Amino acid sequence: MMRTWEARGRLVLADQVPRVMGIVNVTPDSFSDGGRAEALDDAVEQGVRLVDEGAAILDIGGESSRPGSEPVSLEEELRRVIPVVKALAERVKVPISVDTTKAEVARQALWAGAAIVNDISALGSDQELTRVVVEAGAGVVLMHMQGVPRTMQVDPRYNDVVAEVLEFLERRIDWAESMGIPRSRVAIDPGIGFGKSIEHNLLILQNINRFANLGCAVLIGTSRKGVLGVLTGRPVNERGAATVASSLAAAVGGANVVRVHDVAPMVDAIKVWTAIRGWDEVR
């Protein structure tokens, strides 16, 4: 489904072809065990490589949100994220997203050249973050999560997961609009793997079209997640094919952005699919 998504005066989406968001994690276990400077260089080079492979957006995060993870301090997240954002903003032309729930991290990342704030709390954990997004004219990703990362996968329960996630996201879209963030700057993410069982995740992926009907760009992130491990029996580093399959299924259902670690195979899959669809954008 065709959607537009704007961020700081730039069109992130302007047609029906899904975009690939490449993940650059700058958590301690993401890169080499060398010094901080070496880790910075690794992160920047990874970001450049992902863009070369076809990423239309880069998403940079310095605080893990995997199940069971603990929060990091503001100071540490700033040390991890801001140098990477600044360096990549000087080397790539695609929009940069910062994956954070903290207003100060977002503020400094936007100053450094980012255009999008990807908030797993849907602007719910730091009230100042909304002001930062409004004042910068930034794009924003509003994600659904039941609970917090440390405990979110401990027996998540819903009466109707699709209806409840839809209702939550619609409320957050309305709230963002009331604060001065138009729908054209909002993308929504139903939060695969964030406080959801295997069945919950599959139900959401089967109903992407319902999320697309909310009138915002839809972002889906299944990359390497536990649901894929359960379905395939494969460890984290062997879930590339499952990531492509689930992300492409989401795109078929109406997702506009797919967030992945391995960009090249995802870009190839979308190119083939869009060619089969006969969309002029890929000819």
From TrEMBL:
Pfam family for this entry, one: Pterin_bind
Keywords: Folate biosynthesis, Magnesium, Metal-binding, Transferase
Highest taxon, organism lineage: Bacteria
GO cellular component entries: cytosol
Catalytic activity: (7,8-dihydropterin-6-yl)methyl diphosphate + 4-aminobenzoate = 7,8-dihydropteroate + diphosphate
Broadest EC class assigned to this enzyme: transferase
GO biological process: folic acid biosynthetic process; tetrahydrofolate biosynthetic process
EC number: 2.5.1.15
Record bears the keyword tRNA processing: no
InterPro entries linked: DHP_synth-like, DHP_synth_dom, Dihydropteroate_synth-like_sf, Pterin-binding_dom
One Gene Ontology molecular-function label: metal ion binding
Needed cofactors: Mg(2+)
Annotated pathway: Cofactor biosynthesis; tetrahydrofolate biosynthesis; 7,8-dihydrofolate from 2-amino-4-hydroxy-6-hydroxymethyl-7,8-dihydropteridine diphosphate and 4-aminobenzoate: step 1/2
SUPFAM superfamilies from the UniProt entry: Dihydropteroate synthetase-like
Domain Pterin-binding: 18-271
Role according to the record: Catalyzes the condensation of para-aminobenzoate (pABA) with 6-hydroxymethyl-7,8-dihydropterin diphosphate (DHPt-PP) to form 7,8-dihydropteroate (H2Pte), the immediate precursor of folate derivatives.
Family: Belongs to the DHPS family.
Name of the protein in its database record: Dihydropteroate synthase
